[in-house]
């Protein structure tokens, strides 16, 4: 049934997958207790791996919290080092840091991804504390986020390359990919 609906609506593979996820969630029995946030840390092996990497590297949660990084990875997000560790979040940085706009070459794609990812999560896990806190904060702070949130675009960057223009350093083009960590935390990059 979902496949037929996706064909009639001419949905691409990503949108079809999102509709399938929504259907699975709708078929689940209602949970008796409120949802808990997923794990917000990574195992010690991930930290060791990041330390051994020369290129900048970060591990990002499903709501774009920075979970782990090497020194070069943290420098990709200019000014992030000044933020308290618990507030280091890519979406917050993109929408609330005026200097973020100068870091990416494809700004529109970057901000759409920073909204599309939590928007997709809102369809499958709408009451998750990590998601609700992030979205509420960004809806209250930034009209650009509000406009994109209201579009219901669920497309997110799952893999590819991003170019970072870093002041006083260089231009860096890096690969990124999304994977699901076994600890329950979802991580990318």
UniProtKB/TrEMBL annotation:
This is MmyB-like transcription regulator ligand binding domain-containing protein. Residues 42-175 form the MmyB-like transcription regulator ligand binding domain. InterPro entries: MLTR_LBD. Pfam families: MLTR_LBD.
């Amino acid at each position: 049934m979902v496949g037929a609906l996706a064909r009639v609506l001419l949905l691409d593979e990503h949108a079809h997958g999102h509709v399938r996820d929504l259907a699975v969630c709708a078929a689940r029995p209602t949970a008796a207790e409120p949802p808990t946030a997923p794990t917000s840390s990574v195992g010690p092996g991930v930290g060791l791996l990041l330390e051994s990497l020369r290129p900048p590297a970060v591990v990002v949660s499903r709501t774009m919290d920075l979970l782990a990084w090497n020194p070069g990875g943290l420098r990709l997000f200019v000014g992030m080092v000044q933020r308290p560790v618990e507030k280091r979040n890519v979406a917050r940085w993109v929408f609330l840091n005026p200097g973020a706009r100068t870091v990416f070459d494809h700004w529109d794609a970057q901000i759409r991804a920073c909204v599309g990812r939590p928007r997709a999560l809102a369809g499958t896990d709408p009451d998750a504390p990590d998601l609700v806190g992030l979205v509420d904060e960004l809806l209250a702070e930034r009209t650009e986020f509000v406009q994109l949130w209201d579009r219901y675009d669920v497309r997110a960057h799952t893999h590819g390359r991003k170019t970072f223009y870093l002041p006083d350093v260089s231009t860096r083009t890096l690969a990124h990919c999304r994977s699901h960590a076994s600890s329950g935390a979802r991580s990318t990059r």
